[in-house]
Design brief:
The chain folds into two domains: 199 residues, Rossmann fold, CATH 3.40.50.150; 60 residues, Helicase, Ruva Protein, domain 3 (Orthogonal Bundle). It contains eleven helices and nine strands. α2 packs across α3 and α8 crosses α11. The N and C termini lie far apart (54 Å).
């Protein structure tokens, strides 16, 4: 499918607007409209939903989201060179695309969005993990978003869905799986991008749960998990001793052996420990 609308191909857009991907912005442009439409479909039913997109670049995924029926798309783009190309998409979809030129880490998108809201993005590599953690740790739950459909390096995607016992299991897995249903829904080869990255990419879909899987204070849980995985080679009684002088007793109260290491503790165990420390 070279066309999903009356606009030029992405290769033509990039050539017309002289858009070379910038490494400093973590850019890798996805040029196949077949793939961008497929990613948009992984976000679920978009009709009647506003969609937040971060780092649209030349607008491949943006076009997929609009073609798949998104009520409105709010696209936050830091690179001003991409704005003319995005303006052409806005003209083709009157009243359905708003573009903000700025840094997604500094912009509050909620003033521009109406619920229900989904997030879909080929995230710039250099801010992807930080944005995900922010979206997973809001002050209130449920969050502003119903779902997150995000592209990461394959290694990061595996860390999000990892289970206890492996090297990939860590803070991202605990935070993601505590309050959402996370799964990898697509994989993409380096050749799908311009320039081709050195690693494979994957799309992760996270569906917000109405309530956390296990009770815990978010700030305490975050602190426990960060401390545990910052020293993941140490036994927990050593790695967590800075959290409480009687940490061994608290670990035992949570049903965790003090001699275990962080990667051996399931999500339920971390939540139980957070409750003993709260």
């Amino acid at each position: 499918m070279a066309q999903i609308d009356g606009l030029p191909t992405l290769s033509e857009v990039i050539r017309q607007h002289q858009l070379s991907a910038k490494k400093s912005l973590g850019q890798n442009f996805l040029l196949d409209l077949n793939l961008t439409a497929k990613i948009a479909r992984q976000a679920g039913d978009l009709t009647g939903a506003d969609v937040l997109e971060v780092g649209p670049g030349p607008g491949g995924l943006t076009r997929g989201l609009l073609a798949e029926g998104a009520r409105r798309v709010l696209a936050i783009e830091k690179d001003a060179r991409c704005l003319p190309a995005l303006a052409e998409i806005a003209e083709a979809y009157p009243g359905r695309l708003e573009v903000i030129n700025g840094d997604a880490l500094e912009i509050n998108p909620l003033a521009h969005l109406t619920a229900p809201i989904r997030v879909a993005a080929n995230l710039p590599y250099n801010v992807g993990t930080e944005l995900l953690v922010r979206w997973l740790t809001p002050p209130q739950w449920p969050p502003f978003w119903q779902s997150l459909t995000l592209m990461f390096q394959r290694e990061v995607a595996e860390r999000i869905v990892a289970q206890p016992g492996g090297k990939a299991y860590g803070r991202l897995a605990v935070l993601s799986q505590w309050r959402s249903e996370a799964r990898i829904v697509m994989e993409l080869a380096p050749e799908a991008f311009v320039p081709a990255p050195k690693v494979r990419s994957a799309v992760v879909h996270l569906e917000a749960l109405p309530a956390p899987r296990f009770p815990a204070d978010p700030a305490v849980l975050n602190r426990v998990v960060a401390a545990a995985f910052n020293q993941r080679r140490k036994m927990l009684r050593a790695g967590l001793k800075g959290l409480a002088p009687d940490i061994e007793d608290r670990l035992l109260a949570a049903g965790i052996k003090p001699t275990e290491r962080a990667e051996q503790v399931p999500l339920e165990g971390f939540c139980a420990l957070a409750r003993t420390l709260a």
